[in-house]
Design goal:
This protein has ten helices and six strands. With 301 residues, the chain is of the alpha/beta class. The chain folds into two domains: 92 residues, no CATH class; 197 residues, 3-Layer(aba) Sandwich (Rossmann fold), CATH 3.40.50. Strands 2-1-3-4-5-6 form a six-stranded parallel β-sheet, sandwiched between helices. The longest helix is centred in the N-terminal third of the chain and has 33 residues. The protein starts with a helix and ends with a helix. 39% of the residues are buried.
Length: 301
């Protein structure tokens, strides 16, 4: 569903851009046409910039810390590139480019379950899927549907993925989740606690997950966005259901320049292992080489 939606949006954006260029070339550039062209070309970096400035202001108000302007600028540029590739290429056109990999040779070696975040699909993970395939490691990457449903709706999807990797390898998998995906995994742990969900995974690595909610979700209207608001009833119930020892199985990556999950350290589950990277925004954080190397070490360990 999301792949089709993002394709339509991308094609509509390109059509509008071509149409404005044609009008400008044939009829001359009016002020309205010039403003429309600028909006089409710059809306993405402008929105990212607004999010970054909001994050900086909220973080300073809540934590009393101020992200250096130079670091924030570098994070904004990196996120512009990372999010452009993700939303204009991987999600709409490449969601099936790296199919799940469950080779016979993976028996006895730990595999990985990948869970993406809000308004994404499995194509988000393509760079890591290609690298794991080259190593002949087993993996399954899910697509969470419905896109704008409640987070609890995703528990059965995560359950099926864990069972597939576990059946193929005979070893509890490593679960890697980005953003809202980490909450979907926690929701799965709660929903399938009676079936020993926590014991059926080795570790859970979350990257930029709003474990304590995020300020930005206060602007969201969909059920899953409302659930991610700080202090929401859903977040409170999820925290109350988490057994204290379970948090030690989590590794939480976060950044001081995450423009989606803030203020820091809301991306760290209390009691979990905390891993910080300076100057990386929300999507770029996921593909930092430090995170990949840590993943490999955990697979081998």
């Amino acid at each position: 569903m999301l792949a089709r939606l993002t394709r339509l949006l991308f094609l509509a954006h390109v059509a509008a851009l071509v149409g404005l260029l044609w009008l400008g070339a044939t009829r001359g550039w009016s002020a309205g046409a010039a403003i429309g062209l600028a909006a089409l070309l710059l809306w993405h970096p402008v929105v990212l910039g607004i999010e970054c400035l909001l994050m900086r202001r909220v973080t300073q108000r809540v934590n009393g810390t101020r992200v250096p302007a130079g670091r924030l600028l570098r994070a904004w540029l990196g996120e512009w590139r990372a999010s452009s590739v993700t939303f204009a290429w991987r999600l709409p056109w490449r969601s099936s480019a790296e199919p799940d990999h469950l080779p016979p040779a993976a028996r006895g070696s730990r595999g990985v379950v990948f869970v993406h975040g809000f308004v994404c699909n499995r194509g988000f993970w393509n760079p890591w899927l290609a690298r794991l395939r080259a190593l002949d490691r087993a993996f399954v990457a899910v697509s969470l549907e419905p896109v704008f449903g409640g987070i609890d709706d995703y528990a059965t999807i995560v359950e099926a993925a864990v069972r597939r990797v576990e059946a193929a390898t005979g070893v509890p998998p490593l679960v890697v989740a980005h953003s809202m995906g980490g909450l979907a995994v926690r929701g799965w742990l709660r929903a399938f606690a009676s079936q020993g969900a926590a014991e059926r995974v080795a570790e859970i690595v979350t990257i930029g997950t709003p474990h304590r909610g995020t300020w930005l979700a206060s602007l969201g209207l969909s059920p899953n966005a409302r659930q991610m608001r700080q202090g929401s009833a859903w977040m409170s119930a999820l925290a109350a259901a988490d057994p204290a020892p379970q948090a030690a199985r989590f590794v939480c990556w976060w950044s001081d320049c995450d423009q989606i999950v803030f203020p820091p350290p809301t991306a760290v589950l209390p009691g979990a292992q905390s891993r910080a990277i300076e100057g990386a925004a929300h999507i770029a954080l996921c593909f930092r080489e430090e995170v990949w190397e840590d993943l490999l070490a955990r697979l081998e360990g």
